[in-house]
Amino acid sequence: MPKGKGRTSRIRKRKLFRTSELRGVNESYRSEFIELKKWLKARKFEDTNLIPARFPGTGRGLMSKISLQEGQMIISLPESCLLTTHTVIRSYLGPYITKWKPSPSPLLALCTFLVSEKHAGDRSLWKPYLEILPKSYTCPVCLEPEVVDLLPQPLKAKAIEQRAHVQEFFASSRDFFCSLQPLFVEAIDSIFNYSAFLWAWCTVNTRAVYLRPRLQKCLSAEPDTCALAPYLDLLNHSPHVQVQAAFNEETGSYEIRAASRYRKHEEVYICYGPHDNQRLLLEYGFVSLHNPHACVYVSREILLKYLPQIDKQMNKKISILEDHGFMENLTFGWDGPSWRLLTALKLLCLEAEKFMCWKQVLLGEIISYMNERKSLEVAQKICCYSIEETNTMLLKVSRLKTEKLSLVSQLTLVETLWIEELKILQASAEILNRLQSTFS
Hints:
By secondary structure, the chain is α+β, with helices and mostly antiparallel strands. It is built from 17 helices and 13 strands. It has helices at 7-22, 31-42, 85-90, 94-99, 106-120, 127-132, 145-148, 153-178, 188-191, 194-207, 277-284, 300-305, 314-323, 339-348, 358-362, 369-403, 408-437, and strands at 25-26, 50-55, 59-64, 73-78, 209-210, 226-227, 236-237, 243-248, 253-258, 267-270, 296-297, 331-333, 336-337. The protein has a 5-stranded mixed sheet, with no helix packed on it. Strands 4-9-8 form a 3-stranded antiparallel sheet, with no helix packed on it. Strand 2 (50-55) and strand 3 form a beta hairpin. Helix 5 (106-120) packs across helix 10, helix 14 crosses helix 16 (369-403) and helix 16 packs antiparallel against helix 17 (408-437). The longest helix is centred in the C-terminal third of the chain and has 35 residues, at 369-403. The termini are far apart. 32% of the residues are buried.
């Protein structure tokens, strides 16, 4: 048999192909990363474990140069590399922050510094870091209104609230920005405009790491816990990994240790927390595929849609659920309807003669065969309705992608969220079918 034609060779090639699909493309040769490495080295940091790379699906990230063992230090970034409020107060902005009343918030201080340093361009001491930051963001606060309108209702409401908050934050800060005019030749409004401020706000909101609260006398009493961590913030999120991440007071460095092994040339991840996809999109601007924490929220209107309209006790039942916090965070997940959703439905489906058993329902007790069956039936109807609505939204998004070419990237992000929610609902429908079969 000719060399390389056998079964073993074919298996080896398939494995190599699968590995190459996951392996990143080394980007450490790019000028922006060369400059960043020089800048970090001057601040007493030189990484030996990771290199910048581009990966399919996640984009830019960090790749292991060597095999990493469980518990091994992934990265240790000295405090001299961190951008904190202390950095801002020690800068040329310090005297203006100190004398301004009421005292600026820690977030305003960080945002102001970012806008100012970005405007400084080549004169900025932070230029190597600023050069690798995203030029734009995909959080809902940055999306076009017609795209936000296509989001699932709970996320849409939060996105509108978030946009209003950022706009108010900017408007209430304009007097402070005007006080900085002596630092600039250009008109202050041309530097600290809403677009620049929004970019800075998203940079802090999506990329900051957590530090223990610090007290700066010249800042407001709001928690001062955010720090920007150059290079470290290239690590992408995965809901499937665990890491130990914190600032080490003894070493004076922000440290991340692996909780699992990594092979050489594998993408190294961190976990932002056990967030569902709507939270990830709202706060960070992306959707995580196959996210075990992903879920589909059930609104109050849909919850009540398939319940009997003639139930004289319905208002009492709703009042009980509200008093005990069972009208919020009702969801479908990969493993079916949540316990909270089923519990709410069991109480809403209680027969009149069983109404006095509502406390047992909230404690998770089974009241009757009829109650269990009825609550599963309603859950299935809600699930099927949600599947239909999700498919309708996917068709609408797909149609808009052909009509609004300038919004394709934003629409694709929303489409990805709806596709993941559809998969969850379909999985829940199958589980509900199996559960209902036990009552037939």
